[in-house]
Amino acid sequence: MKKYFFLAGACIILSSCSTPESVSARIFGGSSQTLIFESCRAVSEDEFEFVFSSPVTVKSVSFYPYLQIAFIENGSSVRITLEESPQPGTMITVDLLAEDEKKNTINVLASLRSRNNRMPNLLINEVCTEYSNAAAGRKAEFIELKMKSDGNLGAMRLVINGNTNAAMQTIYEFAPVEVKEGDYVVLHLRAYDPASRDELGSDLSESGGMNSSPTARDFWVPGTAKLIHKTSFIYLIDQDDNVINALVISEKPDSWWDKEYFAQTANLLFARNAWQTAGENVCRPADAVISAGTTNTRTICRDETIDNTNSAADWYIAATSSATPGSPNNPKRYEP
Question: What is the pTM of this model?
């Protein structure tokens, strides 16, 4: 959500550029020649771009956390080069004052993440769509990831499109953290327990909360709203909106998607080669992993013994009491 504050002779814009989507602002009451801030992004590990509606000269700029500036290239597209690259995917706040040739000034306060060119190859490995409210403690739904290479998770985003989530809604954006090939990462989709903390350092037992793993890295989505359903589209994207990996699940195999954006998302993943179908040029519920039998302990598991095909053939429903967040998947399968 953007907030705009108007002062005599200046415009202050508070905006977020943490995703590569363009950010624009219109100054109400201004002329068609009003200076407008359009977008910002990290174009490389040590360079940021700020786009305006007309050429500007940067009068001042500061970063938090502090970053030393090496060079500023003015114009409609302002390029700011840093002396050193920040950690990949670091959240950065920028306070920039610019002026056009007519002496109109614009003050932009924006947040964005530094460029991460070291995102690991990874796979969605286990998904729990149901929560437990047992007396022993509430267990949240979760998504487990398995690293297929070394890398850094910073700025990677998880998207879930389900009954309550419209298309391209980011559920979680990862902070910078180093991972190794073979590591498991568990993203818990609710945070019931105040002890549920994201594990950003080397201590993998730091986080409390039900289903936290002492051997895997745990992360927690703030709040307690339900974010995943038995019909959902789960995918990870990078800073350019490229799909890293995806999983399509459907409660029923024999009906068309009951929401328009279900079909749109399914076909988007198919078009990007992130989810394969049975040979047609459209993705249908029958092409999804059928999730009807899942419970809090019967999770949707990837078969870790076979190569990834980006299709339902990679997946099975684990047997009752076979959920393994943060550990290799239990090969025992649910037999309805």
Answer: 0.87
